[in-house]
Amino acid sequence: MRNIIGVYGLLASGKTTFSKTLSSYINALYISADEIGHLALTSKKDDIVNAFGLSILDEDNNINRKTLGRIVFSDKKKLKKLESISHPFILDQIKKIIESTDKDIVIEAALLHRIKIDKLCNLKIYIDSKVSSIVSRLKNRSIDEDKARKLIKIQRDVKIKKSDADIVVKNMRDYKKLLVITKKIGLQYGSERLYKKQRRRQITYK
After folding, report:
1. I want to staple 170 with a disulfide (CB 3.0 to 4.6 A). Which of 8, 24, 205, 206 is the partner?
2. Residues 52/68, Cβ–Cβ less than 8 Å
3. Per-residue pLDDT tens for 119-165?
4. What's this model's pTM, rounded to 2 decimal places?
């Protein structure tokens, strides 16, 4: 039986590094829900413009992600409106990719449950990181602390869903340690330990 692995966690928690590295170790296909979300801005452009107005378009008549972000991240109703347009598209595209291959798949999606991608997965991995570390990483991406904490707050439901994970990866140290943990999981892939879910126990790697 092939595996569909969902990797989730707060923004800037280390999901991309973990997901891409694990995919390489286990020879799985890597899917980024975030990248597909960017495609939604093109494919669902008319619907998004109808919902938010022409002001979100740049000089080339494309949706300006920063402008749209400022609108939705300051208004929960508008964020839900955008998600009602983009999330079905993301889910549909991921389903199509899954159906197009026989390989195991690693899906990186911060909003795994919100988009309902979790329903496609038989193994879910949560990347856990300190808020202070996340804020620091976001600062390195030119996002000030106030905005960083607001973005983290918006993803409160992601943290709550930590309990739904089969595996929790504690990314509490540095990049090298995360790679060591990822390699360990890769080496144990398919083993009884990795699938303790069958015994209804969450596994933690740290």
Report:
1. 206
2. yes
3. 999 999 999 999 999 999 999 999 999 999 999 999 999 999 999 99
4. 0.94
CATH number at residue 36: 3.40.50.300
Structure-token pair, residue 167: 């595996």
CA dist list (Å): 160 to 29, 180, 195? 27, 26, 22
Q: How many domains does one find in the chain?
A: 1
Range of the domain at 49: 4-205
The tokens for 125 are: 């991995």
| Cβ-based neighbour number of residue 128 at 10 Å | 19
Type of residue numbered 189: Y
Rounded Cα distance between 41 and 46, Å, is: 9
Among the listed residues 36, 33, 191, 35, the one whose alpha carbon sits nearest the alpha carbon of residue 123: 191
- How many Cβ atoms from other residues are within 10 Å of residue 185's Cβ? 22
